[in-house]
Amino acid sequence: MKVDGMDIRPIWFDKNEQVVHVIDQRLLPHEFVVAELRNVDHVITAIREMFVRGAPLIGVTGAYGVYLAAVASADNTISDDDLAKECNRIKAARPTAINLAWAVDRVFASIRGKSGRDRIEAARNEASAIEEEEVENCKRIGEYGFSIIDEISSRKNRKTVNILTHCNAGWLACVDYGTATAPMYAAFDRGLDIHVWVDETRPLNQGARLTAWELGKHGISHTVITDNAGGHFMQHGLVDLVIVGTDRTTYTGDVANKIGTYLKALAAKDNGIPFYVALPSSTFDWTLRDGLKEIPIEEREPDEVRHIQGLHDGRISNVLVPPEGSPCRNPVFDVTPARLITGFITERGICKASEQGIAGLFPEMK
Ligand code: MRU
To answer: Which run of H or E residues covers position 226?
Structure first.
């Protein structure tokens, strides 16, 4: 997508220097800083500390991590077994988004048994293929999702379509276009009148910091709201549609996404508002049936709840909110059961959030 007229992605690979560049998303929207990832440890830190975040982007970063592990072993002194250990370290950086393990395993499978320059080249090609495929997938999600917004817009006689989203499932999370945001960009670019309610998304405020920044840079009308306000706007007829992303989706249609997604789905159900989840196929976990019981939910440092980051006197600062000694907990994803989801928007089309619906689009994974 374009930022101030410049084409930009949240990750790019410099062939000459063999360095992976990423936007440090911890500092957006107040500072635009690019970090360099030169080895596996850098990749792990970038994923764990959330320089990069969002399921597809974590996957692509992990894929380049395997490439960097192969580069470090150019003299071929590292065995496949030791390379597999490096892959496991990368996969452990964050547990919930399945894209990370999927992408790392895919690159490893493409280089297993190879050595030297061959191995390096194969790793780079596979990581780059994953990156480009995710871009194409998101573009298609935009096309399919556009039809949903267009239909609502026609029904409303082309009056403003109000869409609510949670967290950031935008291009920053996905290389390009985004998942939940791709239909919004497609609708806006084709002249539909849309407005987006952006949940701030505590504790790290990915909505207020990142989604608002992305949409604003594209000229899309949006309003940041507290995480608790969505239900109120739904009750007053001010939300036509909810679209969110996902970090892992079972083959039966249960969705793990940013904490608070479940409550939005409940409110949408109560108000008869369509609730769609947009995802590329890399976010399906074809091995899991029961999302609530089986999807690992990441719990991060309570300090992320204790403090809020923002701009103060021109500098990014952190402030303490609760009393110093109050215990805090920080589960960062929750599971929305399939029964609360209207449908999935994927690169192959739109389907019902059910085992049958998903298998209809992806019969080869059955
Ligand atoms: O903790 P984060 O910022 O990595 O969480 C991101 C989300 O929950 C997104 O909604 C999800 O990864 C989908 S991104 C297309």
So the answer is: none
| Residue 206 alpha carbon to ligand 1 centre in Å | 8
Which residues are CB-neighbours of 188 under 8 A, at least 6 positions away? 194, 218, 219, 220
For ligand 1, is residue 99 a contact (CB within 6 Å)?
A: no
CA 247 to chain CA centroid, nearest Å = 7
Instruction: Out of 3.40.50.10470, 3.50.50.60, 3.40.30.10, 1.20.1250.20, select the CATH number for domain 141-365.
Output: 3.40.50.10470
CA 47 → CA 29, 105, 151, distances in Å?
19, 16, 38
Compute the distance from residue 74 Cα to the ligand 1 centre, in Å.
34
For the chain, 366 residues long, give each residue's pLDDT as a single digit of tens. Answer: 889 889 999 999 998 888 999 999 999 999 999 999 999 999 999 999 999 999 999 999 999 999 999 998 767 678 899 999 999 999 999 999 999 999 999 999 999 999 888 999 999 999 999 999 999 999 999 999 999 999 999 999 999 999 999 999 999 999 999 999 999 999 999 999 999 999 999 999 999 999 999 999 999 999 999 999 999 999 999 999 999 999 999 999 999 999 999 999 999 999 999 999 999 999 999 999 999 999 999 999 999 999 999 999 999 999 999 999 999 999 999 999 999 999 999 999 999 999 999 999 999 997
> In the chain, where are the structural domains located?
2-133, 141-365
- Which residues carry out catalysis? 247
Nearest residue (CA) to ligand 1, atom 5: 54
Check pocket membership of 218 for ligand 1, CB cut-off 6 A. Answer: no
Is the CB of 256 within 6 Å of ligand 1? no
Q: Which of 123, 112, 119 is nearest to 43 (CA)?
A: 123
What is the homologous superfamily of the domain 2-133 according to CATH?
Answer: translation initiation factor eif-2b, domain 1 (1.20.120.420)
Whether residue 55 has its Cβ less than 6 Å from ligand 1: yes
